[in-house]
Structures are given as C-alpha cells and as structure tokens.
Amino acid sequence: MTHLRNGFHLLLLLLAVVLWGCGDSSDTAYTTDDPGQSAYGTWTLHVTPADGSTRALTLTNGYKTLTESWAAGEKVFVYQQTGTTDPTMNLVGTLKAQTSGGTTTLSGSVTGTFSNGGQLWLYTQELSPTFYDGQDGTLATLAAKYDLLYADITIEAIDPDTHTLTTKQPTFQALRSICRFILEDTEQNALNATKLTVSADNSLVKGYDNNWEAIHDAPVTLTATLDGKTNVVFLSMADFLSGNTKRTLPTYTFTATVGSDTYTCKKSARLEFGQYYATTLTMTKQSKQ
C-alpha cells in the first residue's frame, strides 16, 4: 500500500511538471505568424530610425541652415494607446540614443502588455496641454525641450527568451516649425525684449491632451520669457492646419515688452511642420495709456 501511495504521489508530481512545462511561455518565440499573441512584462527595445532628425539642432551658413542630428543620451518616450471609448496614450518606457550623429540606435525598455501587430508611438518630448508655452527664446532650450518629433512603430516579434521586442523601423516626422525672429522697431533699432507673446485664431497649437489631440481653440497665446540681452528669438511653433495649402493664411500677432514699452506687429504666414523660418519682425511702439 505504501508503494502504491508513493507511486501515486510520484505520478502527481510528474503530471504537475508536465502541466507546468506546458504553461511556460519561455519556450516560444512570438512572431507575426500569430498576430494575436501577447505577453506582459518588461521588454528590451532597440530601434534604428530611418532618418536622423531629432532635437539636437545647430545653425550654419550665417543662420540660414538648420541642421538636425541625434545627441548621445537624449531620450525618446514610448507611448501605447489604451481604451476604445475614451482612449488615452500611456507612457510605457523610454529609449536613449546610443551615439551622436545623423544615425543612431535607440535602446531602452518598455513595460506593459504587448501584442504582435500592436502599435507603439515614439515622441522626442513628453507632451502636455501647454507644451509650446513658456519658452525662453534660445535655440539650446528649444532643442532640449520643445523640438517635437514622433514616429509610430508596429511590433513584429516578441521573444520571451531574451525579453526583447522587435519592431518595424521608425521614420520620425516633425510636429513643429522652428522660427527665428529678429525684433526691430520701425527705425531698424534692435528690440531686446524681456517678453514676447504670439497669438492667433484657431490655427496656433498650445499643447496636446491625453490622447495627443492638438489644443488649438481660439484664441491661443504663447508667451516666451526672454533675458532682454538680444533681439534674436527662437520659437518652436505648430500650425494646426499645416499641410492645408488651400486655406486662408493665418495671421499671427506679436507683442514684445522692452523695458516699460510695448511693441506689436502682425504677420500672415503658413507654418509647415519640419520647416525652418527666419524673418524680421518690424514692430510698432504702442502709446502708453
């Protein structure tokens, strides 16, 4: 009887081992042959962008040419959309550029439930409802905080042995225009402003909501706080109707504070994503009330 009991226990133990082995996903590499396969956990992700544009910005050719490249260590934020009725974009991880230059590999980890065929979004900045507001007019700060590009990628394979996700190669696209303004009065005197505001109706984007929809309800005003030492101002701006060549050109109102004086001007222009614009703002001094 004792032998039977021990044999029965051994059989149960072997059965448990077999069942445990059947439930262990580490023996299977998930591929696009099974697009519904999903897995939860922290996964390593390496991607090499198809183009090298991102937020490391330099000007050459007498401030006429803007060059973009990757900077080693800069972050790229990885988002995943969840929900169907009220979808939101959730931050699931970050990647870092491994080298500086025109091309690089972005490496890091993501945590969540991921499926073959699922989508991830890469952004060079964390977004907010007031993303474009609060700039300081310098190219260095613009490059570090306000140079917004994005790419969407599709998961092609999930490897549980190495805990690695394989995705399609991302192609980054700009969600901003970069503008260089020279501030002058009507007699071409430099205006070293301490504040510059830009406002427009229904086309100027202030930021993004939880689902990365642009916030552009009229009127939108962006405020840049400047050091008052130069009349050259760099701003990252986004036109909600970028790409629509048939619409009426939007009109932007610029207001500069110089000491106790206020200067204004208006300009009509179409700002296209990914473009660099350099122009002089000839501003008129306003009478004090």
SS elements, strand count: 20
Identify the strand order in the major beta sheet.
2-7-6-5-8-9-10
Structural class: mainly beta
Q: How much of the polypeptide forms β-strand, as a percent range?
A: 35-45%
**Molecular shape:** elongated
Write the layout of secondary structure elements.
Elements lengths: L1 H22 L6 E2 L6 E10 L8 E5 L4 E5 L5 E8 L5 E10 L8 E10 L3 E5 L15 H8 L2 E11 L4 E4 L5 E2 L2 E9 L9 E6 L6 E2 L5 E2 L4 E6 L6 E6 L13 E8 L2 E8 L7 E10 L4
Molecular structure report:
- The protein has 289 residues and is mostly beta strands.
- Helices cover 10% and strands 45% of the residues.
- The longest helix is centred in the first third of the chain and has 22 residues.
- The termini are far apart.
- The N terminus is likely disordered.
